[in-house]
Amino acid sequence: MNYKKEIENLYYFSLSDLNLFINNKKLALSYISRWLKNWFIKRIRPWFYVSSKKILELSLKNKLNNYLEYISTNIVYIPSYLSREYVLFENNILTENVYNFTLVSTKKTYTFKNDFWIFEYKNIKLDFFWDFEVVKKWDFLIYKASKEKALFDYFYFKRWIVFEKKYFLELRLNLENIDFEKFRKLVEKYDSKKLKKVLKILELIK
């Protein structure tokens, strides 16, 4: 069997997947090591990989970002969903460029770097790990916060907030893209004192 041909069209595979083909873990590890060295495959996270051919194919189809969103919430660190700066920038709410994938997870805060990008995960308590959507992009199902939950998470994790109008204006948020009724309901639902203060000022400047 041509193991290389079997895996190069997969969106991802693990060491265990390769071992199913070969039925020899030591040999599977040898293949992984060799393929990484000659750039035939790229590491997604420890023991999870994708072929360089598949990455090139996704790039040529302008689907690579969709794929990165998919692996960020389904493979790199789970459970997690895209939120905060990434989603706000995507929806033209945050005006400053965002260069990393920003996510929320019930696991500990963690930053993961691979050959593709940097994925930043912030720990949130389970009670607040809600109000995200399952978005289908091409072949991929991606977990992503609504605009309003992304804004909630953005301020939830923001340190040293100055609760003055000037501070919030300097953030240059495009608040016209936010449904304030939905945002208000989220603040009431999660009963965060900090976000209640944020809401009051945002309603003054929107």
Domain tally:
2
Main beta sheet: 4 strands, mixed
Tell me the radius of gyration: 20 Å
**Distance between the amino and carboxyl termini:** 62 Å
Summarize the amount of helix as a percent range.
40-55%
The number of helices is: 10
Question: Biggest sheet: strands side by side, in what order?
Answer: 4-5-7-6
Return residue spans where pLDDT drops below 50 for at least 5 consecutive residues: none
- Secondary structural class: alpha+beta
- Average per-residue pLDDT, rounded, comes to 94
Order of helices and strands: HEHHEEHHEHEEEEEHHHH
Bulk shape = elongated
Strand and helix layout:
Layout: H1 3-7, E1 13-14, H2 15-22, H3 25-37, E2 41-45, E3 48-51, H4 52-60, H5 64-76, E4 80-82, H6 84-90, E5 101-105, E6 110-113, E7 118-123, E8 132-137, E9 140-145, H7 147-156, H8 165-170, H9 180-190, H10 193-205
Parallel strand pairs: 5-7
Antiparallel strand pairs: 1-3, 2-3, 4-5, 6-7, 8-9
Helix pairs in contact: 2-3, 6-7, 7-9, 9-10
Describe the structure.
With 206 residues, this protein is of the alpha+beta class. It has 2 domains: 3-59; 75-205, no CATH class. 46% of the residues lie in helices and 20% in strands. It has 10 helices and 9 strands. The chain has helices spanning 3-7, 15-22, 25-37, 52-60, 64-76, 84-90, 147-156, 165-170, 180-190, 193-205, and strands at 13-14, 41-45, 48-51, 80-82, 101-105, 110-113, 118-123, 132-137, 140-145. The chain has a 4-stranded mixed sheet with strand order 4-5-7-6. The longest helix has 13 residues, at 25-37. The N and C termini lie far apart (62 Å). The mean pLDDT is 94.
